[in-house]
Amino acid sequence: MIRVLLAEDQHVIRSGLVALLGLEDDLEVVADVGAGDAAVSAALAHRPDVAVLDVDMPGMDGLTAAAALREKLPACRTLILTGHGAPGQLRRALDAGVGGFLLKTAPPDDLVAAIRAVHEGRRVLDPSLAVTAWDLAADPLTPREKDVLRLLADGAEPAEIATRLHLSAGTVRNHLTAIVTKLNARGRPDAVRIARESGWLC
What we know:
Keywords: DNA-binding, Phosphoprotein
Number of strands: 6
Radius of gyration: 20 Å
Domain HTH luxR-type: 137-199
Oligomer: single chain
Pfam family, one: GerE
Strand order of the largest sheet: 2-1-3-4-5-6
Helix content: 40-55%
Protein name: Response regulator transcription factor
Structural class: alpha/beta
Order of helices and strands: EHEHEHEHEHEHHHHH
Largest sheet: 6 strands, parallel
Organism: Actinomadura gamaensis
């Protein structure tokens, strides 16, 4: 029997998934919750074999929850469900060591098969996301450039960034120029957008 934890914030969808999985002889839903932080607590309490986590949840998103489970309960494998497979999400999922990444539009049989595969230690990727995975580019930004870009994304001006990072104003300007160039961005706001969508600015 594969013990499953289900975390999905939309009650109707969660109830439907619980009913669906309950039809399988080898699957048992031991807990279902509506928030990411609740998923971690429930996993520690119920010790599931597989945690099926929605990406977008209140409290803690599914990818953060997956990373927490990997650290606190390594025997529990994780399968991510998402409404859209953005490159940044897929990159974070891979970094978090998830076993599977599936779109919510997948047929029910695919979800059941994915849970079994993840439980067996195999990796599962929704076929429609294969091209996205292939196209994931390496992060071109240095750690310092990401520090600068995070502050810029938070609304800080270059002078404030320089003060907070103990850099000269000229060094900050050089970093910002390098960032825009590396990301082939139209400007600073576009650089923030590209970095976020690519999963380089979490």
